[in-house]
Write a structure and sequence with these properties.
With 198 residues, this protein is mainly α. The chain has one domain: Four Helix Bundle (Hemerythrin (Met), subunit A). Helices cover 76% and strands 5% of the residues. It has six helices and three strands. The chain has a three-stranded antiparallel beta sheet. Helix 3 packs antiparallel against helix 4 and helix 4 runs antiparallel to helix 5. The radius of gyration is 29 Å and the shape is rod-shaped. It starts with a helix and ends with a helix.
Length: 198
Amino acid sequence: MRIKSITKYWWIWLLIGLCIGICLGKLFDWGYFELNKEISIIEALNIFISIGLTIYIASVLEKRLKQEQFKSDLYVAKISEIEDILKQVEDLLMKNEIEYQQINTLIHVIGLAKNSLMKSLRDFNIVEKSIQQIDEVLKSNHRELKSLLTDRPIDKTDKSVIVKNRTITYSSDRITNIIQVCYSIKEEYFKLKVLLNG
């Protein structure tokens, strides 16, 4: 990824080298160089081939960088979809009563989207050790979110989740815990975005 950042600004490095060369040329008297006004055909061909190769290499690097940025943008868009679903969950929590099926569907869609994202990262060999660590944290957070949203307490006196007539009502403490887990999940996706754009 470090090479990517260096090649991304190749033209800046070229300008810096050119400026240093000009400054050194102005500071020192290079009297032993003589310029010949005649150019041989071999030298002219050498110059044109060098210029052609430089342009070709620059265009190939630029094309490759654009392709990598396009892939990165696709992954970031997929992450944004998951974040939108998490936002829907948070918005639903502000209602007093929520349909159990609706919350169950949303948590299922979040899991499917996360698994699809990680599978595509593995398929395109983008998975690094840090991304695998984020995946493990996300798995744990998704399990916790699913448990908080869908599991009912065994103890009948515990009123943190009440399910009645296919609607679910959460206590304020439970809502706080759910929002904290949603925030933790969003933080992990933010880290993933940074790694993908790195």
